[in-house]
Amino acid sequence: MQENGKVTNLFLSGVGGQGTILASNILGEVFLKAGYDVKKSEVHGMAQRGGDVTTHFRFGKKVYSPLIKHGDVDFLISFELLEAARYINWVKPQGKVIINKQEILPPAVSLGQMRYPKDIEKTFKKYFKNHVWVVNGQEIARKLGNIQAANVVLVGAFSNFFSEFKEDQWTDAIKEFLAPKLHDLNIKAFYEGRRALKG
Amino acid sequence: MKKIMQGNEGIARGAWEAGATVGCAYPGTPSSEIMAELSKYKEIYTEWSPNEKVAVEVAHGASLAGGRAIACMKHVGLNVAADPFMTITYTGVKGGFVIVVADDPGQHSSQNEQDSRHWTRFGKVPMLEPADSEECKDFTKIAFDISERFDTPVLLRSETRVSHCDALVELGERKESTIQKGLDQKETPKYVMVPMYSRVRRIAVEERISKLAAYSDAEFPYNSMEINDPSIGFVSSGVSYLYTREVFPHYSFLKLGMVWPLPRDTIAEFFKRVKKVIVVEELDPFFETEIRAMGYKVWHGKDLIPAIGELSPSIVEQSLKKAVEGKNYKAPKVRIKPEDLPRRPPNLCAGCSHRPLFYALKKLGLYVFGDIGCYALAVAPPLSAMHASTCMAACVGGAYGAGKVLGKDGLGKICAVLGDSTFLHGGIGPLMDAVYNKGYSTTLILDNSITAMTGQQEHPGTGYTIQREPASMIDYEQLARAVGVKHVRKVDPYKVEESIEVIREEVNRDEASVIITVNSPCILLRRAKPLDKFKNPFYVVDTDTCRGCAVCLQINCPAISWQEGAGQTKDGHTRKGTGFINKDQCVGCEVCAQICKFEAIVPGAK
To answer: Residue ranges of the alpha helices (H) in B99-194?
Structure first.
């Protein structure tokens, strides 16, 4: 059916505790308000404790499956380098990739049994050419005074792909999911992220 | 108005709109958010019950008094609640009674994989299966109506990809139930299940299921048929339907909203209208077996679709593309082999009180009967400090039973370890057994003052209700003494050496004992201010003294890693590398500093 063809697939990956769920909640609100059907799926519970976490996020006129088909990802937004590499095969050949330049060591690397994979950025650029954007979300957030805002920096970076949405649409959604005392910080984080990818 | 809601939130909304008055649950992934969400509606009494059996019994009592009631649990929770469930099917209900059971195909956060649809045939009660958040709400609402109309508890089956999927929901208003509240002593034969009455009810159960089958065919609005290309028709339900609809949109579909009893006439009509039928279902061949038993020819089902693990659009396509489209499935290009990458399993948080405790157990070389909770992560290397774990609170009886075989030879070698919430869920019975029948097991209750793994739910030991109102609080020492345990000790797990000594004494004792951890709230439980007790904000490795022995890595702290690089200490000991502490992750618990033999881990300066 035609309506299936119009669904856009976002895949968020990261490490438990990095705030991928908040980021996907913000995205959900923006696309809902813009009139799309939205489905997103993520795993909670034990898997969250420092393990790898993923969110399947889909929007379009009508979305059936909450899960994306392997190889059908239009946008990979990864909060961590290794977690980007883990899902590289999920991305369509013409897909777009946004990576947060952060390394969080998995146990095998911490223990000295394996090395953290090198050249992840290079590998992405080899396959996706100029469709790869690397953002230093943690550094940007650190400068703003709270490294936990790195997730919203990434949302800001990603927002550039949807020029049809006004900035208010994003910042309103951010306000909806955060306590008032965190609004200033996170709205700054959004704008910094938006600028980082534009520049 | 439309809102994005998680499936679990949809179920809660449905219960609220249906006029539910009581909700009970024990948390369990992926079901936990249902009761947490329901507790936000002031019209409904909600509670965290000590376990699922209690939740079902409380909700049943509420139903008998005329209230609409809902009890929620994960799949293994219904095993615990099976006893009341299998007889409530006889008594029936007064106010509508819905039991939500959330499966976890693929075992994202569970000890096993169960297909809860089997309960519905076993218990002879109806089951509904929603596919997304909107259906979660709608199906919950209609489940209450079905319950009252047919005098039956109704099962609502969810699963990880329904409960934890966010999708759009159209919000409605709350409508109070018309059932009169009150208890009626004249109804005794219906509610007292002694043989002379339950034999009568046994017949009513069979009559009811026949009526429900007719209802499913003629009235239930959520079995839907979609005839497109009739050469192939798919029979499916829940999220499996969504995957199949996504992958093969041109073909025909029978989506079953009611899993049991099956709509026989509707199925007959579908078989007339399509040429060949494929049954797509997650886990067991439930529909397939039933439909075959009705005498139909199922073209494909579990011969092609895996019965283990969860399905996905990719798996549906991979399994069926050849049969449906005559073309081979083409896997996406492999750019990096995922198996070459280091895995990232979950781990205990930095500063977690379980880490030093399990390190102590490992140092003692104990065989650890473990349990369900975050601390199950202690099984992972290099901590590797758990040797058996089955179901909620099974460790208490397990350790005691092992001692009955080993006798004196087992002294000093065995212990049981479980969390506070898990202990209250099912640990009191086996503890009584160990004392009464003269066992010598040592039960360690790791009190982190919350149900941690499922996302911080209250329980009878936290001192708060689900609404965060102050409540009575279990005193574990008093409780242990009341069941007859004479030796009850307390340890601060952050004092590693002291913990080792106390545990050593108790596991060597030829009598049942209990050790309770103190000063050990969950590191994520803000109200307990878990970080305040740490003297320093973080620790660092002093590279002048670190000899690179790597003992600090043995506790598997996410903040500590190995840094390769030949060198030597200030006093001339050569080394291949050093430990390294990431100060963004370190919370200053000091455990690594305590176990370092060379005093090379020191407080960091701000």
So the answer is: 117-123, 133-150, 160-163, 188-191
